[in-house]
Design goal:
There is one protein chain. This protein is an alpha+beta fold and 78 residues long. It has one helix and four strands, in the order αββββ. Strands 1-2 form a two-stranded antiparallel sheet. A two-stranded antiparallel ribbon has the order 3-4.
């Protein structure tokens, strides 16, 4: 009886180790996680001064008083 319990315990530990290894490999394939504070500058959101919408900084149009979203009603006037 003791041999059977020991065998079950060894199998359970082996299953857990394989499962953790597979999860770690999947996370590695997905790429590194980037914490929100470490996002590249272009990926940060800015707020449009005209309509209040949040847009990525790379897509925003720089205006004198901040950023504009570049939408039809928010395009900077020449």
């Amino acid at each position: 009886m003791l041999k059977i319990l020991l065998l079950i315990a060894i199998i359970a530990v082996a299953v857990l180790l394989v499962r953790n290894a597979l999860k770690a490999a999947a996370r590695k394939r997905e790429g590194p996680d980037v914490p929100p504070g470490d996002a590249p500058p272009d990926a940060k959101l800015v707020r449009c001064v005209a309509c209040g919408a949040f847009v990525p900084r790379a897509d925003a149009v720089v205006a004198g008083s901040g950023f504009r979203c570049g939408g039809a009603g928010c395009a900077p006037k020449p």
